[in-house]
Recover the amino acids of this structure.
């Protein structure tokens, strides 16, 4: 039995009509778009949906996020990355989250995501103090239950955290330094073994809807053999290898101090760049870095809301486009942007780059933003042959908006209104692989009310633990504050803040 959506306004994102809405019908069969055209086949037993007054577009790909942070939503403000991380990813005193809480967290995270139009999550799952299979199983189980598509990582940091930034270790009390350096860390072989096992364990999970992804945290946070080994393993499985690179000015200073070059150039030298690599952020890249990323066909996940919240800087959107680097859009975690919803990210991406230069012909366009939120994210997730556009043969991951809403009234340019006017409130149906996971604005697959109630019950215990760990990590604050300010005042040869170069 098929579902036929008749005579809807459709943004296909295919090569012919791109982001321009056209009136089309869609036949969905066995989870894929079987036909798309002015007319399509209708057979007895098909479910036929009247698509008039509806806008249909490909589901959004959240190309960079961390479900771990869901429980820290709304806890922090006005902290730059290096200080914020001390509390959101504590160095000392963290206890492993029990798998049932990981599952609850992941369910809520996925529910909020799909309700905003996200059909694919690139979830870089970092558990502190470290990750095990019971926790990773819980994430896979949760996304299986909700029905979302996802790349799910084993995230790894295998250097003592205080040694992943310049200067700070010298300014910390020696007993604290000793304690951090004594914390056991994975070797490259440990992580690659874990990842091999994960590929076996999750192969074909949920009909291939859920995939394991490699995620060495960053070039300054992982050993060279781990970074190179993860790149190789990702290629062997055609999986994504997801790496945080040059999110902040501190990291630009780090490249110079640790390797005498940029972090992108360091990754190139050690063999850790490939077409399966996605850099999260990529803000403080030089023109030469951008050329290297284009040469190796590396993608970049752009996360403007998180970058604004943490004051990280403004990624060079136009330079990436000019160089031919594929961009995806990400919300980043729920502590650095406080929501996994993607409409805000689309709007921020469309707006932010208009203040970077007076030449309005170089500003970000709604078409580029929609492309990044769909095809770009799909490419970065290594899913571009399956999703990212609506065309015959691709998975039926799609969004259905009601056009009789305030956001779409008056109907002028639906593509512009989708980016600038719509905030998720007009979204009626969300389909992943032909399955309806949101209907009439409600998640159909899990009991959202019950999940919210369960979290409310558990919250006092969760928050008491967060408070305890937070106070344990204030010991790092002063040295990291000094390090942050020192790096902010240095000249790294690129400028991604709106103040004068070198301003701290
Ligand atoms: Zn991140």
């Amino acid at each position: 039995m098929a579902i036929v959506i008749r005579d809807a306004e459709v943004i296909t994102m295919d090569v012919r009509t791109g982001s321009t809405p056209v009136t089309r019908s869609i036949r969905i069969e066995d989870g894929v778009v079987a036909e798309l055209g002015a007319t399509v086949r209708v057979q007895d037993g098909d479910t036929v949906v009247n698509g008039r007054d509806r806008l249909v577009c490909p589901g959004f790909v959240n190309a960079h996020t961390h479900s771990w942070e869901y429980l820290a939503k709304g806890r922090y403000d006005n902290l730059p990355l290096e200080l914020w991380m001390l509390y959101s990813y504590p160095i000392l005193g963290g206890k492993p989250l029990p798998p049932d809480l990981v599952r609850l967290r992941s369910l809520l995270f996925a529910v909020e995501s799909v309700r905003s139009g996200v059909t694919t999550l690139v979830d870089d799952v970092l558990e502190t103090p470290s990750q095990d299979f019971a926790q990773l199983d819980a994430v896979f189980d949760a996304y299986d239950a909700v029905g979302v598509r996802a790349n799910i990582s084993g995230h790894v940091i295998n250097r003592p955290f205080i040694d992943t930034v310049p200067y700070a270790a010298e300014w910390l009390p020696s007993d604290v330094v000793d304690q951090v350096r004594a914390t056991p860390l994975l070797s490259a072989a440990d992580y690659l073994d874990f990842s091999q096992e994960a590929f076996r364990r999750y192969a074909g999970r949920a009909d291939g809807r859920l995939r394991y992804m490699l995620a060495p945290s960053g070039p300054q946070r992982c050993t060279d053999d781990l970074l190179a080994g993860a790149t190789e393993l990702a290629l062997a499985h055609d999986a994504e290898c997801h790496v945080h690179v040059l999110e902040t000015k501190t990291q630009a200073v780090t490249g110079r101090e640790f390797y005498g070059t940029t972090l992108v150039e360091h990754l190139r030298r050690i063999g850790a760049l490939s077409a399966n690599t996605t850099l999260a952020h990529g803000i403080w890249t030089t023109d030469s870095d951008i050329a290297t990323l284009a040469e190796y066909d590396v993608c970049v996940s752009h996360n403007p809301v998180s970058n604004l919240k943490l004051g990280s800087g403004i990624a060079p959107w136009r330079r990436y486009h000019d160089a031919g680097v594929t961009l995806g859009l990400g919300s980043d975690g729920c502590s650095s942007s406080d929501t996994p919803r993607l409409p805000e990210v689309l709007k921020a991406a469309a707006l932010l780059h208009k203040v970077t230069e007076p030449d309005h012909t170089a500003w970000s366009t709604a078409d580029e933003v929609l492309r990044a939120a769909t095809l770009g994210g799909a490419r970065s997730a290594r899913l571009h042959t399956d999703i990212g556009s609506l065309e015959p043969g691709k998975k039926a991951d799609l969004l259905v908006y009601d056009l009789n809403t305030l956001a779409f009234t008056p109907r002028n340019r639906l593509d512009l209104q989708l980016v600038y006017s719509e905030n998720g409130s007009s979204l009626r149906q969300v389909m992943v692989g032909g399955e309806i996971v949101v209907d009439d604005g409600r998640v159909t697959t899990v009991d959202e009310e019950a999940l919210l109630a369960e979290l409310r019950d558990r919250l006092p215990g969760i928050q008491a633990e967060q408070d305890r760990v937070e106070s344990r990590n204030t010991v790092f604050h002063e040295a990291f504050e000094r390090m942050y300010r020192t790096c902010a005042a240095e000249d790294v040869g690129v400028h991604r803040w709106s103040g004068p170069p070198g301003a701290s």
